[in-house]
Amino acid sequence: MSGVIDDITIGTQIRDLRKARGFTLEDLAARINRSVGYLSQVERDISDVTIPNLKDIAEALGVSVNWFFRGDAIAPEDERGLIVRRSNRRRLEFRGTGVLEELLSPTLTGAFEMVLGTFEPGGDTGEVHAVKNGEEAGFVVSGQLALHIYDKKYTIEAGDAFMFPRNIPHKAWNPTDEKTVVLWIIAPPVY
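RE: above sequence
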């Protein structure tokens, strides 16, 4: 079953996300136990992708199959690749972490990406980790966010901004009983 969503094929979405994750065709093919040729043909829309294969690809890329599907509304042709309407945001829900992220960037092929993160009370980004191939910055839209940077803890509030430099271990979490919303800027788009 070949898939086209809003004139953006599933193959194109797989390729964009694979590149954003920093995977080669060989890396992803090995993760899904398929040939490089098959994966290349899927990305170029020469071969159809089955639901089981799409599930394997999604899992290898760290997203759910739903990530490949856009909102119900079809963007006007003159907005595609330029504007993301609220109803068409791609959503990533990290089950068990209390974090929901929505991709605000219309593509993953630019110099940076924007992500709107919502942290439920107690929600966190997981274990301390470092961005190896880029930088992350954020702006707290509402609520409060606790940060762990350079083995030091900070608490920031709505209106505050921050940055995680490359290769510096960090973590973010919501220490309150209310939702926290953060606008993330990630460069290059590695999400």
